[in-house]
Amino acid sequence: MPRSQRNDNFIDKTFTVIADIVLKVLPASRSEKEAFSYYRDGMSAQSEGEYAEALENYYEALKLEEDPYDRSYILYNIGLIYSSNGEYIKALEYYHQALELNAKLPQALNNIAVIYHYQGTKSMDQSNLEMSKTMFDKAANYWKQAIQLAPNNYIEAQNWLKTTGRI
């Protein structure tokens, strides 16, 4: 049974009903509708912490989805899962793939910056100051790009850029 048919709470059920109606009304191909269904099930599984199931659904959605914009969000969500699991190299790969398809995805830029900042902090803790500076500079570069796209977001990043003299 698809995940969308076994949602337990009212909001999930409401979203599922509305999404099903929209899916029926939209002039989309069968493949596009199926891709959306997998994507929706992936989001539902991801929100419940069922990352393996979410990844399965996202990978199926990627096989079917042709629209670059929609593919970018699928790739972004895959990156989120890998990042949540501490697999930062894989997360970076998926965030970059998402950005190749949709350069105006500030949340991907922000998440890349967060990973580089984390690596910079880790390097600093290990007294590797050269690597730390490199990672912090990379973080700054990605945060600047994210802030340029979404100037009212990422306030902590903006403050960090100011206090470290990187803005």
From TrEMBL:
What GO cellular component entries does it have?
A: chloroplast thylakoid membrane
Q: Which windows of the sequence hold TPR repeats?
A: 35-68, 35-68, 72-105, 72-105, 120-153
Superkingdom of the source species:
Eukaryota
BP GO annotations: photosynthesis
Keyword Membrane appears in the UniProt entry: yes
Q: What keywords sit in the KW lines?
A: Chloroplast, Membrane, Photosynthesis, Plastid, Repeat, Thylakoid, TPR repeat
Pfam families in the record: TPR_1, TPR_8
Q: Where in the cell is it found?
A: Membrane; Plastid, Chloroplast thylakoid membrane
Classification via HAMAP family: Ycf3
Q: What NCBIfam families does the database record attribute to this sequence?
A: PRK02603.1
**Function summary:** Seems to be required for the assembly of the photosystem I complex.
Protein family (similarity comment): Belongs to the Ycf3 family.
Name under which the protein is recorded:
Photosystem I assembly protein Ycf3
Please give the organism: Corynoplastis japonica
